Amino acid sequence: MPELPEVETIASALRRGRQGIPGLVGLQIGEARVLWARSLANLSPTEFQARIAGQIVEAIRRRGKFLVFELSHDVLLVHLRMSGDLLVESDTAPQASHYRLILKFENGFRLAFQDPRKFGRVWLTGEPETVLGSLGPEPLDETYTGDDFYRDLHARRRQIKLLLLDQTFLAGLGNIYADEALHQAKIHPLKRADLLTQQKAEHLLSSIRAVLQEGIQRQGASIDWVYRGGDFQNHFRVYRRTGLPCTECDTPIERIIVGQRATHYCPHCQPLV
Q1: Is residue 141 included in any domain, yes or no?
Q2: Are β-strands 109-114 and 99-105 bridged in parallel, bridged antiparallel, or unpaired?
Q3: Phi and psi dihedrals of 212, rounded to 5?
Q4: Are 77 and 66 in contact (CB under 8 A)?
Q5: List 214, 248, 261, 267, catalytic entry
Q6: Domain total for the chain?
Q7: Which pLDDT value is given to residue 18?
Q8: If I label 236, which of 50, 109, 145, 182 is the partner at 20 to 30 A Cα–Cα?
Q9: Under a CB-based contact definition with an 8 Å cutoff, are residues 79 and 65 in contact?
């Protein structure tokens, strides 16, 4: 599943475009085609197609793992889930078999929502907070301080790995970046959140920000799904490195299951005290 760095990379590419492909900001949507009705979370295909036609893309941003398209009258929200991707291409290009939704623009290009496993969802709404309102703070928001993080950790008696994956606690983290941040902060994934000291909490928040910023710099990680172009997978410290030496101490990386999620850590650097 794409996490914060991958979604941020996609949002940036949709804003600025690439060689031969325009950015989408400022473009008017001519028409929409819904190819799989269940991709729509809150409207019928007929309602969606009629409502979005003619709207202009005014801004594109990210909130947690959601792509947020601010339109002239509504907000389009896209959650890619396990295998979703967004492609900008000429409207004359062949249509792939896994396209679930297409937005056609008046300049001859289209935005295609490709989703082989059909888990992704799309909302068109005038009240985006009905969807986004339950999300926790953004980990890269500098107004969210170490004191805030420490307070929030101590309000919950949960294993730290599971808490970091909870989107109502902190928005955007997933399995990859949680494992990487916990390793950098030298915290065992089973450690209870409310037992972390203030110093450890601040170190963890700093580590979360560091691995997310590195992920964005490297355009995300290209594994598990159809995301294109990132190379953060070549710089993992623990994730998917079971049995390989820790980059800090050479101890073999171990893999356990935490809340049905594969979790990778170094038993030497991250002891469960």
Answers
A1: no
A2: antiparallel
A3: -70, -45
A4: yes
A5: 261
A6: 2
A7: 87
A8: 145
A9: yes
Based on the fold, state whether residues 121 and 152 are members of the same structural domain.
Answer: no
Residue 184 lies in a domain: yes
42 falls within a domain:
yes
* Segment 70-89, tens digit of pLDDT: 999 999 999 999 889 999 99
Q: What is d(CA 188, CA 199) in angstroms, rounded to the nearest whole number? A: 15
> Is 127 marked active-site?
no
Examine residue 98 and state whether it is found in any structural domain, yes or no.
yes
Q: What pLDDT was estimated at residue 236?
A: 96
Q: Which residue has the tokens 């309000």?
A: 155
Is 261 an annotated catalytic residue?
yes
Identity of the amino acid at 230: G
Q: Do 123 and 162 fall into the same domain?
A: no
Q: Which residue in 7, 29, 128 sits closest to 76, CA to CA?
A: 128
Report the amino acid identity of residue 221: A
Copy the structure tokens of residue 268: 């030497």
Residues 202-226 have pLDDT tens digits of 999 999 999 999 999 999 988 765 5
What pLDDT, in 10s, does the model give residues 32-56? Answer: 999 999 999 999 999 999 999 999 9
The CATH number covering residue 234 comes to: 1.10.8.50
Q: Look at residues 132, 162, 192 and tell me which one is the last residue of a structural domain.
A: 132
Q: Which tokens is 138 given? A: 């953004």
Which pLDDT score, from 0 to 100, does residue 224 have?
A: 61
Whether residue 126 is found in the same domain as residue 79: yes
**3-state secondary structure (DSSP) of residue 225:** coil
Residues of the chain with pLDDT under 70: 224-228
Q: Give the pLDDT of residue 230.
A: 85
Range of the domain at 49: 4-132
- Nearest residue to 6 (alpha-carbon basis) of 76, 75, 98, 84: 84
Q: Which of 135, 150, 114, 139 is nearest to 215 (CA)?
A: 139
